[in-house]
Amino acid sequence: RLLADVVSHGGRMGQRLLGVFLAIVGGGLCGVNNVPPSKYALQHPGLTPFAPVFSQCLGIWMVSSIIYLAYSSFARLNKWPVPHSAIRPAYLSGCIWAVGFACMLGGIKDLGYSVGYTLDAVGPVVVSSLLSIVVYKEISGVKALAMYAASFTCQLSGVSLIACFGHA
Length: 168
Prior knowledge:
It is built from six helices and no strands. The longest helix has 30 residues, at about 1-30. It has one domain (about 45-165). With about 170 residues, the protein is mainly α. It is a multi-pass membrane protein.
């Protein structure tokens, strides 16, 4: 309810502030996502890099299921419709994410954390943004494409510097 009030009463500025806040929270959570498996791998060097995958995926599945069940229960109590068909694609994408996560841990083991995690974090963003431009035409117009090109160039420069000078 608080978020709805901020967005509805704040207008466009409220939406922007909410977007910035959610981006900061999402970035912070994403930034610490790989810390537990990386610490586990350092504490157990004899294990394969895929050892923490099951526990990480199980934890994500359990928490997301609890969130969905809580939302469904709250919606049912308030007599809101609950789109149950949306859960199947979410679980399928979770399975795809788990495979990607396992591959990411393998890459980090072989390339080192500074290079491996940077490539694993930026690579999917590059692919999805290129699909967004080429296939779905979500980014269009000269100004938007110029902003994308500038941000892509900055990101590519940063990744290149980390790949060249990062310690494996």
